[in-house]
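Reopening this one. Same input as before:
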Amino acid sequence: MRVASQPPHHPYVDHLRPEPGHKAMVGEPVRPVEAVEVDDVWDVAELAVVGVDVVHLHFGFEQRSLAELRAWRAELARAGTALVYTAHDLDNPHLVDQSDYRALVAELAGTADEVITLTAWARDRLIGLGGRPPTVLAHPHVVELDDMRRRADAGPVLGRGAYVHVPTVRPNLDLDALAALALHARSFGGLVVHVRAAALAGAAPEVRRVMDGVASEPGVDMDVTPGRLTDAQLWERIQGAGAVVLPYRWGTHSGLIEAARDLGVRSVAPAHGAYGDQGAELFGTVADCVTALARPSCPGPLPVAERVAQRRHLAAEHQRIYSRARSRLGVPA
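Same output, byte for byte:
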């Protein structure tokens, strides 16, 4: 079965496939899934030429109009290509006005051949949008398994303070919460805020003013880099902290929470979205967040064996879902 994902590469997407060298276990579907890349997943004719059986849509549809999405969906059905949709963001962190985006999510939730989401919180809300319960499959590991093994062998790292990862200064960043946290940075061991230079330079004057104020507070390290961090650089920053803080005004799921779990660092997040379902400690006010950060905690990394077993389970479940999606079109799986 040939599956084209949108996007074709992403830690989440890549880790839905069996880890290298894994052999199918008894009871797993015998038909392998072949991941194929296409130049344009929205070009159904190209999908047919490549022989794509299933399109698995994750991100990257927010620029489509509802009419465009419906036309594409109908064209896929006519071509006999199944559509699987994983709902990651019910509210898009890159958008302020969510109305058009939510209409797209509702359309996909109601018309895709199979719908997946990551948490029970998101499932319950998708039922209201699409009228049917999606399959809930947990977020896989984010840190590579070999890297997790190496870090586990090296022993625990006792981090200090808090880390905030806002490289592109997305619209859902809660500037007021970040400024308030900065005022108390010394009380919980310091605050590191990572941002890219270009994002900071291109931000609105009010955003730059707040970020300058954050950087000036005692105990704050404004970590400005010229470009994107490598995975290794990001993992070092997370492991160097006692907690990862998500100062977001809205959101649904977070890969950063999963990376922190892989590395044995707790996450502290606002009490909205599905962050609690992912294992983050929740706060209602900044004062609650400061209190939580001042409380020592070292959960330890998730066992690598647990993440390996989870990845194998997810790979098998996705094989079954792709087969079901094909069957809904009347095409043998």
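So the earlier flakiness isn't reproducible anymore. For the record, The radius of gyration is 21 Å.
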